[in-house]
Amino acid sequence: MKSVLIVSVILWMGTFGTVSAAQAAGTDDALTQEQLEETLTPLLNKIMEADHIPGTAVVVTEGERIVFSKGYGYADVGKQLPVDPGHTVMRVGSLTKSMTAAAVMQLKEQGKVAMDQDINTYLTNFKVPLYHSLPITLHHLLTHTAGLDEGVYHLAAPSADKAVPAETFLQQYLATQPPVREPGTEYAYSNPGAGLAGFLIEQVTGSTLEAYMQRNLFGPLQMPSASLIHQDSDPDMAKSYQYEKGSFQEIPYSYPNLPGAGALSVIPDELAHYMIALLNEGSYQGQHILKQATVEEMQARQFTEHPGVEGVGYGLFRNRTGNGILTLSHTGDIDGFAAKMQLIPEHKLGILVVSNAESPGKPLRDQVTDAIVRLLPAPQIQDPAVAAPSTPDLEQYARTYTMGLGPQHGWGKWFRWLGGKNFEVQNAGETLRITGVFPEGTGSEESKTYIPVREGLFRDKESGELISFHQQAGVWKLTFIQGVTIEEKPAFLQQPSTLLAIYAGIGLAWPVMILIAVIRSLLRLIRRKKQQRLGHAAFIAVIFSIYLIGQLLYGNSQVIFGYPAWYALGFSSLPFLAAAAAIHLGIQTVRHQQQNTDEKRRVRYGRYLLVVMSLGYTFFLYYWNMLSVHFS
């Protein structure tokens, strides 16, 4: 017995000593609560005051536990309720996409779906149109490479009772907006793609996405607050704001019609459990949501815009810090809420930042994650992608590129020119100098210097962000990595600035015509001359003016919520009335010319000009899908 006892004590001491040694060895790399407090608190206070952000939650995990959790500012400004990461429910927007990807990977483990299978094999009530007979797969959906048209119209509802099921949205979307490019060839962030992946989960399991998530993700991960169904009455739900005219203005909640793309609300400390699982072989406190091999597949490079870029996994974006540390991340923005989840597998470190207002410049969430990463020791091996080409030919990239984002079909097609921006790329000797309004910039024009990394790949000298260039079908393209791809400046008549000038220039002509008619009537009244009856010109000008005012005040702002029938079918048909009046005026003018050869030529030509202008403007609106009947 003594021998057994002695051996047992020795083994116990040896085991305990080994654990202690391991812990001691890890303390050099570990982040302490004190370190994080000293780094983050002054930083958050400074940014929140400067950017007018009322509240922020920051949660940091390491290994299998939360090592830092703190709220800053207010979840409800009016009631002065503080942000509490362990109690406040916050919306995280597109972070939902990562959990949708995890749910898809669960079904893959069970053999219920395959990543390379045509998704139409899982759909029953409708099918996804094919681009040149090429099928779309789950791999394409989870890497944003399905080639789907940009989703803008009716993505969300302004109230819960106006929301529609994902199936209804997808049927309408795919009927009016078929795929626009070959699957697997180009990254283009897609809410409909993620929403479609979420709906496929429902098709395969016969369950709602909310019910599936509760059973298979939220439950095992101990996330009782998590839901894809927004509860207005939840007293713990944070409010979101925008800062206007010296005060915080509350932003109304929206209700996504594609829950799998961005509907998640959750307590930040609970969402940290998901980060822990992804960093610990798919396990949280003994509950496995995924196998280790599946987690590795999610985190692996599944698509990249350039061989020298980390690319994307499934539901996770791969990047490297300035000193070469691999990071996995996803961001989310909805109704003023701005969130970011960043994982650093090398240190089993997870970072979650959620704010209830957006930053006007560099996002607060990025500044926080960058500050935490700087606390980590540099890796021994640097990222091999930093090796610059020996003799880069920079002149080939020097040209003007135009960003015109928007759908190619359906409502919102006009966004392609309404927010068009040019980027001037200049050869600066050993670097490229790019001037423009950058997607993640300050909102105003900036000039940035880019250093060659590899052939066609460049790194921003200040921020480290990557861009790439490639040529396709004789046209040069510029890609903001994990962002958007834009092309060389198009011909004059296709440039966003030209199209906007046509829309605004002719559009302003109509109220000017009304003003002139009013002034002429007043002058005739003063001179006591007989008033002329309002003719075709006044009718046409009034109709177009009413339509354009409605488009500016209602149409552009409400497109994301979809249009009621009175607007989509009725109000948007007004230009057709103006066109009909113009045709009638043209017919009358021709007849009058035949009957009255003494009519002044300038009057006749003025009428013809009005007819051409009216019909041309109606066709312009029709081509850009601004009317009740669409060109595409």
TrEMBL record:
It holds the Pfam family Beta-lactamase. Keywords: Membrane, Signal, Transmembrane, Transmembrane helix. The chain crosses the membrane at residues 500-522, 534-554, 566-587, 608-624. The keyword Cytoplasm does not apply. InterPro entries: AmpC-like, Beta-lactam-related, Beta-lactam/transpept-like. Gene3D superfamilies: DD-peptidase/beta-lactamase superfamily. SUPFAM superfamilies: beta-lactamase/transpeptidase-like. It comes from the Bacteria. The keyword Membrane applies. Residues 1-21 form the signal peptide. PANTHER family: BETA-LACTAMASE-RELATED DOMAIN-CONTAINING PROTEIN, D-ALANYL-D-ALANINE-CARBOXYPEPTIDASE/ENDOPEPTIDASE AMPH. This is Beta-lactamase-related domain-containing protein.
